[in-house]
Amino acid sequence: MKKCVAIAIDGPAAAGKSTVAKLVAKALNMTYIDTGAMYRAVTWATINAGLDPKKEEDAKTLLPGLKIDLMEDGRVFCNGNDVTKIIREPIVSGNVSYIAAMKSVRLALIDMQRELAKSKSVVMDGRDIGSYVLPDAEVKIFQIASVETRAQRRFIENQSKGIDTTYEEVEEEVRKRDYIDSHRDFDPLVAAEDSIEIDTSFMTIQEVVDAILKVIKEKTGLEPQCH
Ligand code: DC
């Protein structure tokens, strides 16, 4: 059987990881896995069930039997419901850090993520992929950008998706999520020691993709078929 390769792309909220990770996966014909969408799906499920997303004893009741499907076309299903759009809405974005700080939720989702990476080559984006989920990933990228750049990018993305927020709200949410993500007790946002940091503040998407593909080629020999 062909050896599966794992590429980890971590970094703070709105650093452009998912856009870049999708393009890298496409260029190398690998599967893209958006682990943030999984935490968002649990957040949606908690709120949808009328439970409190700040209480672990509430959220964890949903874990047995929880089913999250990440489709090749980018759609996200949670227990059979198409949650693709709603998981990007402020009600979910504003609560997801609480859910992502819960050890029981993390352990359940990390199991699913490891399972997904077992049978196929993946580009996985998140916060802890290189540091915890896939410590043996062949390539680990830690993608950063200034808070202002990240807030601006997320604001534009929200507008294009018809999500109604002001720039100030987005910047405040990015700062709040940075703080909660990097200060949680279990498995916080941290760069893996052997990760390669890329500051994307002044780079175009294509420049970031090319930089990552170059690292992948150096480390694994893999390169895009027609790039
Ligand atoms: O990447 P994102 O904004 O969709 O992530 C949503 C939240 O999930 C964010 O607050 C951090 C958390 N997260 C995490 O803790 N670990 C991951 N592997 C992915 C996301």
Commentary on this structure:
With 227 residues, this protein is of the alpha/beta class. The chain has one domain: Rossmann fold (3-Layer(aba) Sandwich). Helix content is 47%, strand content 14%. The protein contains ten helices and eight strands. The strands form two sheets. The protein has a five-stranded parallel beta sheet, with helices on both faces. Strand 4 (76-78) and strand 5 form a beta hairpin. Helix 1 (17-28) packs across helix 10 (205-220) and helix 8 (147-160) crosses helix 9. The longest helix is centred in the last third of the chain and has 17 residues, at 167-183. It is globular. Bound molecules: 2'-deoxycytidine-5'-monophosphate (DC). 2'-deoxycytidine-5'-monophosphate binds at residues 13, 35-36, 39-40, 96-97, 100, 126-128, 177, 181.
Compact description:
The protein has helices at residues 17-28, 35-48, 56-59, 90-93, 96-100, 103-118, 129-133, 147-160, 167-183, 205-220; strands at 6-10, 31-34, 68-70, 76-78, 81-82, 122-126, 139-144, 196-199.
